[in-house]
Amino acid sequence: MTISVGLLEIGELGEDQKRSLLKTIIMTCSAFFFMGLLGFNLAFAPTIMNGFIGNPTHTGPFLGGFSSDAFGALNRVWWSMGPGYFNKGITLPVYFFFEVAFASVTLALVGVVVLRKMKMSAFFIFSIVYFLLIWSIPAAWIWNPTGWLYAAGVRDFAGGLVVHGAAGAAGLGIVLQIWREEKKRGLKESPQTRLNPSSGWLTLSILLLWLGWFGFNPGSTLAWGISAQIVAVSTFLSASAAFLSTMFFRYLMVKENPGLVYAVNGILMGLIIITPLAGFVSPASAVILGLIGGPLFLAGEKLFLRFKWFSDPVGLFPGHMLGGVFGFAMVAFFSQQPFAAAVGSSNLPDGILFGGGFSAIQQLGWQLFAVIAVMVTVFAISFITTWLISLGLHGITREYKKEE
Amino acid sequence: MTISVGLLEIGELGEDQKRSLLKTIIMTCSAFFFMGLLGFNLAFAPTIMNGFIGNPTHTGPFLGGFSSDAFGALNRVWWSMGPGYFNKGITLPVYFFFEVAFASVTLALVGVVVLRKMKMSAFFIFSIVYFLLIWSIPAAWIWNPTGWLYAAGVRDFAGGLVVHGAAGAAGLGIVLQIWREEKKRGLKESPQTRLNPSSGWLTLSILLLWLGWFGFNPGSTLAWGISAQIVAVSTFLSASAAFLSTMFFRYLMVKENPGLVYAVNGILMGLIIITPLAGFVSPASAVILGLIGGPLFLAGEKLFLRFKWFSDPVGLFPGHMLGGVFGFAMVAFFSQQPFAAAVGSSNLPDGILFGGGFSAIQQLGWQLFAVIAVMVTVFAISFITTWLISLGLHGITREYKKEE
Amino acid sequence: MTISVGLLEIGELGEDQKRSLLKTIIMTCSAFFFMGLLGFNLAFAPTIMNGFIGNPTHTGPFLGGFSSDAFGALNRVWWSMGPGYFNKGITLPVYFFFEVAFASVTLALVGVVVLRKMKMSAFFIFSIVYFLLIWSIPAAWIWNPTGWLYAAGVRDFAGGLVVHGAAGAAGLGIVLQIWREEKKRGLKESPQTRLNPSSGWLTLSILLLWLGWFGFNPGSTLAWGISAQIVAVSTFLSASAAFLSTMFFRYLMVKENPGLVYAVNGILMGLIIITPLAGFVSPASAVILGLIGGPLFLAGEKLFLRFKWFSDPVGLFPGHMLGGVFGFAMVAFFSQQPFAAAVGSSNLPDGILFGGGFSAIQQLGWQLFAVIAVMVTVFAISFITTWLISLGLHGITREYKKEE
């Protein structure tokens, strides 16, 4: 998935963006290394500090250090996958892989706003903080069954807020620091990066993203069975519906073939919106949600294009942030008990549109509260981190034209 | 697979063919949406009208609509996968995915003859009719166990006729309409599209096609087991043998290295030919069939190059149509009872080459009859559809040079 | 994997290298065909001649010929996967696929030194000998449980010596013959091929290689279970650590961003080094081994760049040969009994660093002896083969500029 996002970036911005791919490789390796070292425990070990963060010493570094006993420890079912919690029987290494993939792709989403502007060294240091802290906090709060927001009933199936929303908030923290440095250099607006689509890479990236979502969404049922199959159907139907609606409404706007970039963004929007509730809704609801995705993306694009203090050609804000948060809120509208129960969220009430009444409205309140708590926290840590890195490296932005 | 065909097209025709990839995305999304809406029922629900077409109301739209019961319905084994029919225990969502992938890739094959000539809007409308009707009819006849040709004993393991042959017939319907419009514009022959190979994309497409076939052929045993493994071996041996024979005979023709495009076409021919009988034959027969593939493709290519009223640079007719129909007929020659029985076709007699005698000749008769029935029907519906779209849109061909 | 290596080659050398990809396809098809015909038996059938080579007539050609009984034979567990040997219950077709993939990728590694210099026909003939003999001999010695080196206690988890080391030795045989012909033409040094990186393909190749290693290393446990999961974790941690150390030490050398090619080579080095012992060590040892990989590769690169009689821009010698042999020797240092026993190597003693004492030193002796035996044999056969082909074809090198 991380590499798919890298290919998406060169697919949209042009093949000369070698930095996109180096950045991709850095993120992938950094994710394995630092999640292995510490981050995985911070996110998924039993929480300390009232559900705020996982116990960093739960496993040793790198899942078990040099111990020969490691084999025994690795063999055991991960605590939260055992009876009493999710009860899925998943072992530590498998769960580690799954969550590293999530963490890595989340930073990849953040990274699309970095463009050529940020020093690679600054981004690498950011990635370390990211995998230790910035990603781990929302995961510990919402996906860890001892996290405080999970305990309050908040549900995010495969990462509408934990992945896409939080990526947007972290990205905002970075672009704000970039803008502060650009302003200091006397710029009136942030240099905009133009689209320069390369159709082969763009299409390949969509293939890989689609495949990756096939891993993340059905995988989030934490077992292969009928629930995972239904999630797969819902995910793909939402993507197809969002593609059709994006193309249709864009065609109405410009009266000509909207072209490949809108096609790709339409599919992505459908995938993003369905992510936080793919396991809770019926296939036909997935179609409805996908159809809403088209106009939502087009409106979001129009809105964010007004801001001139950052450049977001790949669509982190109108796509991932807006779509992820929207879908996350829709949990309270479209959920249906039998679907939610089958993926282990039996406490989730029916949605407002399916007769959930007061419980559903309460759910909506908690979901919106979680949006604010996560977005503010992630934005703040991301901005402070970038600011500190900027102090240490005398700025995080590169001087243009010097290289490449 | 659908995307592999898109990459094959840009691999052979050059990267400037952005339309190839937009077309690919349209087909993928349209397949999910319209097969989900109705097409899947028309092809695979219990047939009505004496085995002519599936019952369109068997499941609701999108596999189960908004119903919470959907979960129960989706959980059930699909009727034709239960005892009394194929008895494989496959659920609705899994079977839906598998068949949507087949439908989508079939249209992708059709689509390689569309080139830059056809309006994207016309092709999109065609795709809707395609997934509702054109693809569903041969599937309902031959793959649905209540279809009239299946009942007569016709067998097509993984789509020699249902996929490759029918794609050729549908493609003929489109190129005929394109040619009628070109003639009306005063052209003496249809503009030929030149090959402009891009080796990276070509090779990548072959990798993906090979992987995809690994899904379709072994997957057509509808269970992972020793049969699927043998099918995988036969499929890959046939491809390798066809590659070697294509390169060898082409080398004899031109006395120089035949190059990458022939290499790719050779592999494809081996994959296509073995498709309709991969589950019915021994590995050594697969090698023989692959070796025949080389000269067959080269002869087909020579034959179809004579026609100047269409352009088929990617080889729909000499490759998919010729190879698919040839392999489909070979069912009556190469089948061996123990292999066929193991994949659930216990009624299929030994082939003519393996002592099948009169039963095998009878089988050959039915297979050839099926070729005629399917090819004529699909060609006719495809042509009529294209002709009606042409009326509605004032022509399906684009004026050249206007865009891109 | 084979195709990944092809893409790696065009990723590093530039897209104009069409020959890279034709070569790739030749190798893939040749592997299936000739391993199927004979090579698989020579490597993996019960050995004859005191453990020197497998019995060529153990199965018929192509796993079972035309026999209808083939189904029965194919259905049986492969002899070495039954009780008394590895006891994994794997059938012939699955094991055949796995080992053809290994054979094919090994030749792909050899092939990166061929560049534009070698006639394609010569390389094709070489590939036949390769799959019949050159690859089969080390496999029969070390991976076949009746091979003489296996019997002596030598262990190579997923091919440090059998794959990467032997590929280096075979490559040396080829470049020596190429150099002899170049010298005869009066050249003072072998023309060096320059790097011309294409970031998209390079990154894609790394994705595919990484995925492929996910197949080979965990797959070498011959079963999906906790051992395979630990192997996967160790493999990825080693790759990440080697990436970080390569970038770090290269940065110290040049004081600037080392760029994409070093990133890719760092990851590869980590994957290569862990290959021969991924199943025998703890995750933290994998991190240590990966961290050593960076400086080892950089030193190897410096060393091999001194030789001017061959050109190795993709790094067969400093990467695969050096890294594979190094990791293979490290078996005697880092192994831990509980891990080794879990993947079926219960005779392997604890490593020198984990208190293995005299047994571990004895193991080191055998591992080093195996290095010499395999490297000399493979080099000799490869050189003699290339020399004979050269006699038959009046040279194996191409005249430059004539084509392409």
Oligomeric state, counting identical vs distinct chains: homotrimer
- Largest interface, chains and sizes: A-B, 39 and 44 residues
Mean pLDDT of chain A, to the nearest integer, reads 89
The rounded Rg of chain A comes to 20 Å
Question: What are the low-pLDDT stretches of chain A, counting only 5+ consecutive residues below 50?
Answer: none
Report the span from N to C terminus of chain A.
26 Å
Keywords:
404 residues, globular, mainly alpha, two-stranded antiparallel sheet, 15 helices, homotrimer
What would you note in describing this structure?
The structure is a homotrimer of 404-residue chains. The first copy, chain A, is 66% helix and 1% strand. By secondary structure, chain A is mainly alpha-helical. In chain A, strands 1-2 form a two-stranded antiparallel sheet. The mean pLDDT of chain A is 89. Chains in contact: A-B, A-C, B-C.
Short description:
3 copies of one chain form a homotrimer. By secondary structure, chain A is mainly alpha-helical. Chain A contains 15 helices and 2 strands.
Topology record:
The structure is a homotrimer of 404-residue chains.
Chain A: H1 2-13, H2 18-44, E1 47-48, E2 53-54, H3 70-75, H4 92-111, H5 120-134, H6 136-143, H7 148-151, H8 160-184, H9 199-219, H10 226-254, H11 260-274, H12 283-305, H13 316-334, H14 337-342, H15 357-393
Antiparallel strand pairs in A: 1-2
